[in-house]
Amino acid sequence: MASVYDRHVDLPTFMEGVRKRNPGQNEFIQAVHEVAQDVFEFIEDKEEYHEAQILRRIAEPDRVVSFRVCWEDDNHNIRVQRGWRVQNNNAIGPYKGGIRFHSSVNESVLKFLAFEQTFKNSLTGLPMGGGKGGADFNPKGKSDSEVMRFCQAFMTELYRHIGPDTDVPAGDIGVGSREIGYMFGQYKRITNRWEGVLTGKGTEYGGSKMRPEATGYGAVYFLRDMLKYSGQHVEGKTAVLSGSGNVAIHAAEKLLQLGAKVVRLSDSDGFIHDPDGIDQEKIDWVKRLKNERRGRISEYADHFTGATFHGDSRPWNVKCDVALPCATQNELDEEDAKALVKDGCIAVSEGANMPTTLEGVRVFHDAQILYGPGKAANAGGVAVSGLEMSQNAERISWNHERLGEMLTELMEGIHEKCVEHGENGDYVDYVRGANIAGFKKVADAMLAFGVM
Ligand SMILES: NC(=O)C1=CN([C@@H]2O[C@H](COP(=O)(O)OP(=O)(O)OC[C@H]3O[C@@H](n4cnc5c(N)ncnc54)[C@H](OP(=O)(O)O)[C@@H]3O)[C@@H](O)[C@H]2O)C=CC1
Ligand SMILES: O=C(O)CCC(=O)C(=O)O
């Protein structure tokens, strides 16, 4: 009987070990399972990876730091939240990955995100390891002063674990330019150092141009690259998106620029359907709604004639050509995937991290539609974060045009790597391609370091 310490454990035994060591951490187990399926096949005849137990080591974070975050609300109540930083792997560069503030944040969610980030960052080709952090704090409905006090309290603990060559956090769900500003200010105050310790900063204080747009635009470039490789194009396609935050808004904007028609956006209350399509004026309105007024997507249907709001529902059940899940993990399940395929969807590009369940992914693969997993399709954001780190280190600032070109090239490079490792006859398995290309670089670096 194989033990988890055998060099040649099979996939079920490996996964049994992962489940035992991480009880109840379903998101983390799901993320490891998805990668392990492909990596096990790839390393079957590669003794050096077995010998060094590489996958087992990547699936065990270097460290998980958990801490208390204590802050005072506007009514002078003392609030206690839990914060984390998961430093998954720094074989190829400093830990790098966003910070999420949402009531659903827990250790499993952050471990899955840090694990995924390790492969994603490797795929970009830039020197970045994988990490992720956050807190079970929900900025929704909080005043600016409350958000500021929370961010300062969070950084008062986090600052001792990060640094420009150690670990460089950024934004994610619930953490945008406002929160990054408060956290960067607090880091600077505590350490008396101005250094590129966070990315996604305002351009007035060292942020990179194109970073706000990069994840959404990148997901559309990846979609364009997948379509192009199979002889098709974005122009004229009808697109359905979930989310209405940073990623969704910029994905919608780029789809529009490339000639597609976007008909749906959502938030956690439901989705809006706009049969006329969401044009630039409407996108700008959603930007103001979400970034300034911090309102709900349902208001869109009150404002624009012809649009409708559908509460407590997901956006996937509609005729469309392409779908971009841009909200959160496991927001698209087997039934949703079947509905998309039935309604004629030919391509899915994930702006969010792990938005499709394992069963949903199987439906897309069985139907052989183009399916770009988040770790490849949404890597444009962290890639431009990597470029922000370079600009900060050199004390320079590149212009919009140059960064736009670099983002396009980086996404093309990721697409090529996925094809290189995922092409099988006339079908490209982008999940397999992303997993293997992402794994190989990290694994080879780890081999070079010996046992640690
Ligand atoms: N920002 C970035 O650069 C990157 C982000 N990502 C991923 O993209 C996704 C979106 O991030 P981002 O746009 O930055 O975050 P934002 O906070 O800007 O927006 C998140 C959006 O998703 C919705 N949402 C969040 N949770 C749920 C839920 N449980 N059910 C339904 N809708 C939900 C939010 O609605 P509501 O306001 O109602 O909560 C909101 O519309 C995440 O998966 C993130 O990890 C990936 C790479 C980089
Ligand atoms: O820009 C970054 O460092 C992180 C972005 C992120 O959190 C992600 O890619 O999921």
Q: Could you explain the architecture of this structure?
A:
- By secondary structure, this protein is of the alpha/beta class.
- The protein has 3 domains: 11-58, no CATH class; 63-194, Rossmann fold, CATH 3.40.50.10860; 212-372, NAD(P)-binding Rossmann-like Domain (Rossmann fold, 3-Layer(aba) Sandwich), CATH 3.40.50.
- The protein has helices at 11-21, 26-43, 47-51, 54-58, 107-124, 144-158, 177-191, 211-229, 246-257, 280-293, 298-303, 334-342, 358-366, 374-377, 380-394, 400-422, 430-449, and strands at residues 63-72, 78-89, 95-101, 130-135, 167-170, 238-241, 261-267, 270-273, 308-311, 322-324, 347-349, 370-372, 423-424, 427-428.
- The strands form 3 sheets. Strands 9-8-7-6-10-11-12 form a 7-stranded mixed β-sheet, sandwiched between helices. The chain has a 5-stranded mixed β-sheet with strand order 1-2-4-3-5.
- The two termini are 27 Å apart.
- The model has no long low-confidence stretch (mean pLDDT 97).
- The structure holds NADPH dihydro-nicotinamide-adenine-dinucleotide phosphate and 2-oxoglutaric acid.
- 2-oxoglutaric acid (AKG) binds next to strand 3, helix 5 and helix 15.
Low-confidence stretches: none
The CATH superfamily of the largest domain turns out to be: NAD(P)-binding Rossmann-like Domain
Mean pLDDT figure = 97
Shape summary: globular
Taking the sheet with the most strands, its summary is: 7 strands, mixed
* Number of contiguous helices: 17
CATH topology of the largest domain: Rossmann fold
Count of separate structural domains: 3
In total, how many beta strands?
A: 14
Q: Structural class given helices, strands, pairing? A: alpha/beta
> Order of strands in the sheet with the most strands?
9-8-7-6-10-11-12
The percentage helix is 40-55%
Structural Rg: 21 Å
Specify the CATH class of the largest domain: Alpha Beta
Examine the secondary-structure arrangement and name the CATH architecture of the largest domain. 3-Layer(aba) Sandwich
Strand content: 15-25%
